[in-house]
Every structure is written in C-alpha cells, then in structure tokens.
Amino acid sequence: MNTEQKRKIAACAYNFIDDRDTIIIDDASSSFYLALYIKEHPEKRLAIVTNSLLAGNELAGLDHVDLYMIGGHVGGHLAATMGDDALENMKHFQVDKAFIGVHSINFDVGITSIATPQMQVKRAILNMSHKVYVLADSSKFGGGYLSVICPMKDIYKIITDDSISTENIKKAQKENISLVIAR
Fold it and tell me: Which regions of the chain does DSSP assign to beta strands (E)?
C-alpha cells in the first residue's frame, strides 16, 4: 500500500544519511524502500544493521554496504528476526541513526506498533541509536495504539508524504516535533 509515497519518503530519508554513517533499518515496508534506495545509490559507504530478511537480501554483497544481520527467531508472516535472541543480539550494536516504520502516530500517545514482538524490537532500536527517524506515510497519523513504542519526544524526525493533513502538521508544530515532508 502507498508504494509511491513510501518511495518518496525513502528518497527523502536518504538525504539524512551521511557517508560512513552507521544506521539500522527495521523490517517495515517503508524501511525496505530505503534499503532499495541505498542499493541503487552507491555514492555513500554505510554500515547497516537490520532485522529484516528482505532488506538484508537487497543489501547483501554490495560494495558500499557493510551489512550486519540481527539474529533471532523468524516466525509468523514477517520476514524479520524477533524475540529474545534478537533483543540480546541488538545490545551489541550502537548506530548513528535509525530508520523505522510504525503502525500509527498518535500525538497524544506516541508511536505505536501492531504487536508486542515488533514493539520490543523497535524499543531496542531506540536504545541503540543516537537519532531515530520515523518513516510514515500520511495514512499512519491518528488511529489506534495497540503497543506503544515510545512517546513523541523520543523521535528525532518524522518523514512523511505531502498528503499529510494540515491538522496533523499543526499538531506536530504544537508538540515541537520535527516533521519532514517528502515531495
């Protein structure tokens, strides 16, 4: 869903990555599009950590990427590592920047995930990252909050598409949240 918006968000997110950065990309679809963009743009040399089997597959073997896969259990419908082993493995990494997708963004509650395993991985990502960028198309604003990952203040920037409502832009400004609109 929202493929074109996610591609624009990925291209915008790439602008926040510097040559020789260490980054983590989670298993969200928006993050996968960032991995594809990185694959297509070899001008920056990066060390990338991921729990996404799909992103890892795209980034493996590239001359400009040093890839580190997070070990752990792969189960259910997600092509990603999760569980206690993944969480323990993540403690051994520290990165400059994290790029994560979310289930929803609720300005009153924070950013959310669809289930506890994903929430735990995303919380671990926050702990291992200096700056956290949320990649979220405009459909992610508002809505439910099954598993709260963190409050809004823990996020460095939210990168979204130009279909975001004026109301959500005003909420972000009121909450002093850095919002970047991909065009």
Answer: 22-25, 46-50, 65-69, 95-100, 104-106, 110-113, 129-135, 147-150, 157-161, 179-182
